[in-house]
């Protein structure tokens, strides 16, 4: 019975001064994870599109990887939402009776459109592979082979033609889908910003700049994650080449050269979006301070006192300024890049944290504060779902899904 | 092969159109639309709170919790009473322990002693859902589980609410919370189950001083409506544009 009677939010909210009785931190760590994961999905997809739409040849290897990785990330953009629902089994209601005056109602539609694009793009990219596998495995003995053959045959959807004309159509399909995908990816994310920006009751969230700020930081985090994964893959390849051919071999040097070239090229985009994101956030801050509406007093005390470390030191300092200098300094090295990229990813996470949790750090009465204590060791379902381990589950899942998908559609092999 | 495919497509399209014609005779209604037909459109419920009369006894909170089965000892409540103590230095000392349920029997505000000679004014403010004319909570519900009835009361469908908390975030008054038992959004309904049967709201009935009253704005002979129309009344947080329908007599500018 005591298990049933839980006041949602009571567990991790500490109130200070005057706060309305029903006010708690209702949106916790999972709502921080949600825009963060969506941002990564969008970023990974945009990177794969750079190859498919704009023909960036050097990204050919990573394009397949990032496309499949964005598919693996997709369900995890929805996972935090389901984990935070008080009635997770009713999540489907959003699809049954979408109430379109709500910013969340379109989520199902935007999300499934995006999923459809990613899935069909993957199908076009891998159709030839499915056909080849289906033919190669035909008649092979063993249950696994029969199963695989059946699976690949189903995946071809009956389109077995692999002549040049058919492959040309496939390529065109990929290009069109990737082209549509970019604005949809941006929309998916800008929309997450609108969910917050349109809450008029929340003095920190309500801003028309919110969707744009969200898109910018999403692109920043997406590019950073893809660069980081690219570095890891290239380092792994270099390591394999070194094992096979020795340290001084030409292939190793060549790999290193390509890696540095791609990374320094992409980092220019990263810096550009980073500047855009910071400028917009600072504009928002300055505007709030200058206009000094009724809410400014409480916002100021949250920003400059309660959450000073989180906002100015961790987010702007460690997450923006420091990596900015690391990226701008001449003679970039891979090690320095890795540090900068990890910091950028951390900075975007802190930005999400400071928006979601920071927006609930003060009472609607403007007369008190609420502090969020992230549950670490779970002692019931709620403290697991909305605690450190729930967030870690969400963070780890894409890698597990990717491992599974990769068994069926290998994305790390050389094409 | 190609001719049979064409034939198939033709039949499929014709069949599709033929099947959808009778379907178009039906209208798809969202649950919100269906439920919005609940209520009497000759009534517009509104609340009148006379701050001058409230003594902070907490009977209203007690009555509400018992009537509406909100767990008595948990720190959430559909209605609550706030205490404001203003001192000579211009500061407001505000509190609402246990939502004011047990009455204000101690002079301490959040554990602090305030010397009586320092106090310039002090008063109690009962709070409840404002049953806004343009409710932000209804606007943001992604599934239409919360809706406004024809007589102006905002209700929640416990069978359809997914518990996302967006309505809780959208309410500028902080009246919503998750029900600890049902795990769905919960709020004051003006005791809709009572008022539609001609009874008084639990808090109105429990108030010994007549500080809380409920009336029908569409009935000009209603004494409450008469007071709202003829006296100087205020509402809370008008700046959010939700058009709140809980009117206060003697509202202080300090009230948040």
Descriptive report:
The complex is a heterodimer of chains A (415) and B (256). With 415 residues, chain A is mainly alpha-helical. Chain A has helices at residues 29-54, 60-84, 93-96, 107-136, 143-156, 164-197, 210-245, 250-291, 296-306, 308-328, 334-356, 381-385, 388-408; strands at 13-17, 368-372. The mean pLDDT of chain A is 89. With 256 residues, chain B is α+β, with helices and mostly antiparallel strands. Chain B has 2 domains: 2-31; 33-79 and 127-249, 2-Layer Sandwich (Alpha-Beta Plaits). Chain B is built from 8 helices and 11 strands. Chain B has helices at residues 2-23, 31-35, 59-67, 136-140, 166-170, 192-195, 202-206, 223-230; strands at 45-50, 80-87, 92-95, 119-127, 146-148, 154-156, 177-178, 185-186, 212-216, 233-234, 246-249. In chain B, strand 7 (177-178) and strand 8 (185-186) form a beta hairpin. Chain B is elongated. The interface between A and B is large, with 47 and 53 residues.
Keywords:
heterodimer; A: mainly alpha; two-stranded antiparallel ribbon; 13 helices; 2% strand; globular; B: 256 residues; alpha+beta; Alpha-Beta Plaits; four-stranded mixed β-sheet; three-stranded antiparallel β-sheet; 8 helices
Largest inter-chain contact set? A-B, 47 and 53 residues
Give the SSE order of chain A as H and E letters: EHHHHHHHHHHHEHH
Level-1 CATH class name of the largest domain in chain B: Alpha Beta
Strand percentage of chain A lies at under 5%
- The CATH topology of the largest domain in chain B is what? Alpha-Beta Plaits
List segments of chain B where confidence is low: pLDDT < 50 over at least 5 consecutive residues.
none
Main-sheet strand order of chain A equals: 1-2
Main sheet strand line-up of chain B:
9-1-11-10
Uncertain spans of chain A, ≥5 residues at pLDDT below 50? Answer: none
Output mean pLDDT of chain A: 89
Describe the global form of chain A: globular
Rounded to the nearest angstrom, the distance between the terminal CA atoms of chain B is 75 Å
Portion in strands of chain B: 15-25%
């Amino acid at each position: 019975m005591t298990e049933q009677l839980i006041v949602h939010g009571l567990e991790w909210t500490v109130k200070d001064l005057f706060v309305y009785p029903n006010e708690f931190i209702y949106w916790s760590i999972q709502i921080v994870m949600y825009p963060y994961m969506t941002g990564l999905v969008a970023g990974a997809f945009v990177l794969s599109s750079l190859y498919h739409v704009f023909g960036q040849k050097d990204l050919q290897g990573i394009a397949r990887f990032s496309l499949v990785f964005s598919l693996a990330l997709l369900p995890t953009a929805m996972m935090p939402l389901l984990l935070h629902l008080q009635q997770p089994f009713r999540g489907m209601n959003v699809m049954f009776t979408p109430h379109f005056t709500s910013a969340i109602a379109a989520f199902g539609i935007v999300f499934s459109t995006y999923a459809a694009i990613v899935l069909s793009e993957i199908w076009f990219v891998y159709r030839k592979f499915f056909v080849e596998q289906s033919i190669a495995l035909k008649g092979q003995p063993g249950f696994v082979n029969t199963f695989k053959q059946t699976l690949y045959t189903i995946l071809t959807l009956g389109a077995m033609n692999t002549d040049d004309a058919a492959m040309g159509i496939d390529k065109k399909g990929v290009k069109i889908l990737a082209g549509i995908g970019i604005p949809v990816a941006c929309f998916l994310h800008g929309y997450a910003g609108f969910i917050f920006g349109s809450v008029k009751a929340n003095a920190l969230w309500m801003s028309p700049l919110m969707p744009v700020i969200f898109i910018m930081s999403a692109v920043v985090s997406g590019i950073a994650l893809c660069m980081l994964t690219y570095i890891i893959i290239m380092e792994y390849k270099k390591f394999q080449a070194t094992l096979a051919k020795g340290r001084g071999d030409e292939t190793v040097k060549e790999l290193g050269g390509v890696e540095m070239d791609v990374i320094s090229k992409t980092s220019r985009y990263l810096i550009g979006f980073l500047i855009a994101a910071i400028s917009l956030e600072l504009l928002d801050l300055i505007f709030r301070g200058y206009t000094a509406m009724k809410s400014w007093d409480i916002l100021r005390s949250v920003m400059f006192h309660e959450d000073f470390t989180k906002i100015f030191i961790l987010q702007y300092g460690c997450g923006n300024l420091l990596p900015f200098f690391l990226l701008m300094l001449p003679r970039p090295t891979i090690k320095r890049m890795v540090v900068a990229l990890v910091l950028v990813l951390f900075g975007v996470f802190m930005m999400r944290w400071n928006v979601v949790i920071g927006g609930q750090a003060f009472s609607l009465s403007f007369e008190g504060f609420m502090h969020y204590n992230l549950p670490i060791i779970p002692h019931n379902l709620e403290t697991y779902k909305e605690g450190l381990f729930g967030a870690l589950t969400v963070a780890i899942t894409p890698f597990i899904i990717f491992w599974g998908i990769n068994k069926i559609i290998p994305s790390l092999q050389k094409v | 092969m190609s001719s049979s495919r064409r034939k198939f497509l033709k039949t499929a399209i014709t069949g599709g159109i033929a099947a959808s014609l009778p379907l178009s005779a039906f209208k798809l209604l969202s649950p919100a639309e269906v439920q919005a037909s609940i209520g009497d459109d000759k009534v517009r419920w509104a609340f009148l709170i006379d701050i001058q009369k409230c003594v902070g006894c907490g009977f209203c909170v007690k009555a509400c919790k018992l009537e509406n089965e909100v767990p008595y000892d948990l720190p959430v409540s559909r209605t609550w009473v706030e205490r404001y103590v203003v001192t000579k230095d211009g500061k407001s000392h505000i509190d609402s322990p246990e939502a004011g349920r047990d009455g204000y029997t101690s002079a301490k505000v959040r554990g602090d002693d305030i010397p009586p000679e320092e106090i310039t004014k002090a008063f109690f403010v009962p709070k409840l859902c404002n049953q806004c004319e343009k409710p932000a909570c209804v606007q943001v519900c992604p599934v239409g589980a919360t809706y406004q009835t024809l007589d102006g009361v905002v209700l929640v469908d416990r069978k359809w609410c997914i518990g996302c908390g967006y309505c809780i975030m959208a309410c500028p008054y902080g009246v919503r919370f998750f029900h600890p038992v049902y795990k769905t959004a919960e709020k004051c309904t003006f005791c809709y189950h009572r008022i539609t049967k001609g009874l008084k709201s639990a808090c109105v009935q429990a108030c010994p001083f007549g500080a809380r009253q409920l009336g029908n704005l569409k009935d000009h002979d209603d004494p409450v409506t008469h007071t709202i129309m003829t006296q100087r009344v205020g509402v809370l947080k008008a700046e959010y544009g939700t058009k709140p329908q809980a009117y206060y007599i003697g509202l202080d500018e300090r009230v948040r």
